[in-house]
Amino acid sequence: MGMSYRRYLHGERIYGCSKCRTHLTTISFMISRAFNGQHGRAYLFETVVNIVEGEPSDRVMTTGNHTVRDIYCIKCNTTLGWKYDKAYEASQKYKEGRFILERNLLIDVQ
Ligand SMILES: [Zn+2]
Fold first, then answer.
1. pLDDT confidence of residue 4
2. How far does residue 49's CA lie from ligand 1's centre (Å)?
3. Beta bridge partners of 35
4. If you measure from the C-alpha of residue 73 to the centroid of ligand 1, how many angstroms do you get, rounded to a whole number?
5. What's the pLDDT at 39?
6. Separation of alpha carbons 38 and 21, rounded Å
7. Mean pLDDT computed over 14-19
8. If you measure from the C-alpha of residue 24 to the centroid of ligand 1, how many angstroms do you get, rounded to a whole number?
9. How many domains does the structure of the chain reveal?
10. CA of 87 to the centre of ligand 1 (A)
11. Most buried one in 16, 26, 69, 95, CB count within 10 A?
């Protein structure tokens, strides 16, 4: 069994993977709560750790075309959301390099 190196976060409110409690991000990295994921409400974060990024793919969303990568928990491999590589609409550029995490897949670990 291999061991993966995981980072531990510190802060007032830490969000983790609901399945294995691996730390993912904190409330100080949250940009917006007003997003929709594949399974309901989702949050946009500036930084997420302890994830694996999938291959880029183009997706048409309500806000236009985007190139995104699915992101997976480094420990349990659950699909947690996606990362925006590129947004084609000027008004959506702020999402580039940011991460969507599905609310239902997050727990408070602290
Ligand atoms: Zn996990």
1. 64
2. 12
3. 42
4. 5
5. 85
6. 21
7. 97
8. 9
9. 1
10. 27
11. 95
CA distance 48 to 91: 23
pLDDT averaged over the chain? 93
**CATH number of the structural domain spanning residue 66:** 2.170.150.20
3-state secondary structure the chain: CCCCCCCCCCCCCEEEECCCCCEEEEHHHEEEEEEEECCEEEEEECCCCCEEEEEEEEEEECCEEEEEEEEEECCCCCEEEEEEEEECCHHHHHHCCCEEEEHHHEEECC
> Residue 10 pLDDT > 90, yes or no?
no
Asked whether residue 5 is assigned to any structural domain, the reply reads no
Domain that holds residue 55: 14-108
41 closest CA partner among 110, 96, 103, 97: 103
pLDDT at residue 63 is higher than 90: no
CA nearest to 98, candidates 35, 14, 38: 35
Question: Do the domain assignments include residue 76?
Answer: yes
- CA gap 71, 68 in Å, rounded: 9
Residue 4, domain member (yes or no)? no
Q: Is the pLDDT confidence value at 1 over 50?
A: no
